[in-house]
Write a structure and sequence with these properties.
This protein is mainly alpha-helical. Helices cover 44% and strands 5% of the residues. A hairpin with a 7-residue loop joins strand 2 and strand 3. The relative contact order is 0.09.
Length: 198
């Protein structure tokens, strides 16, 4: 059975700064590889749970390299730490879009990891030491500065795992009521902290 769905992180358009988790069809090359496994050791049949039209018109031929479909902030921070001055001219094996690089550099500047000249700041040097999204790395550093490191560690940990809230189809109301017991209206982050502390 080949349902061939996956959920890669996909950069938003050039004028936006976030990421979108997009539910998309997989890739034709992967589908062909899975089909060949059906008859590898004996007679077999591959049943695909999508239409021929979806295969022909909605599936890409092969996988888009991860660097071309994900956030580049940590990659750029790491390159800057390696003294790569001009990341726009860096020779990536699979070059990401210039817009994605520029947007990521802008976000690093907003976080204070890069200065106005695009050079790594002292804060940026500290942030790259954490194997985390730069936003979370800065959150940890600020937690130490503002004497709330334990709470911030908990929040970052909760953000680094799949959601603790589960909402089964046939029990939506019950699930929503259970979640309401933990909600802190001012902040999703404080809600996660509240869940952990309960």
């Amino acid at each position: 059975m080949d349902c061939v769905h996956l959920t890669p992180q996909t950069p938003l358009g050039e004028n936006t700064l976030g990421l979108l988790l997009l539910y998309v069809y997989g890739f034709r090359a992967s589908a062909e590889q899975r089909a060949s496994l059906a008859g590898r050791t004996g007679q077999g049949t591959c049943y695909r749970l999508y239409t021929e039209n979806a295969y022909e018109n909605e599936m890409l031929q092969s996988t888009v390299p991860e660097i071309q479909r994900t956030n580049l902030e940590y990659v750029i921070l790491f390159l800057k730490c390696l003294a790569i001055q001009n990341v726009l001219d860096f020779e990536f094996m699979d070059p990401p879009s210039q817009d994605n690089i520029v947007n990521s550099m802008y976000q690093l500047w907003v976080l204070g990891a890069l200065n106005n000249a695009g050079d790594l700041t002292e804060l940026g040097r500290k942030m790259v030491e954490f194997p985390l999204d730069p936003h979370l790395a800065k959150l940890l550093l600020m937690g130490e500065q503002f004497k709330c490191l334990n709470e911030v560690l908990t929040i970052v940990s909760m953000l680094s795992v799949p959601s603790v809230f589960f909402r089964p189809k046939d029990r939506e109301e019950e699930s929503d009521a259970a979640r309401e017991m933990f909600v802190v209206p001012e902040s999703d982050h404080l809600t996660l902290l509240n869940v952990y502390e309960q």
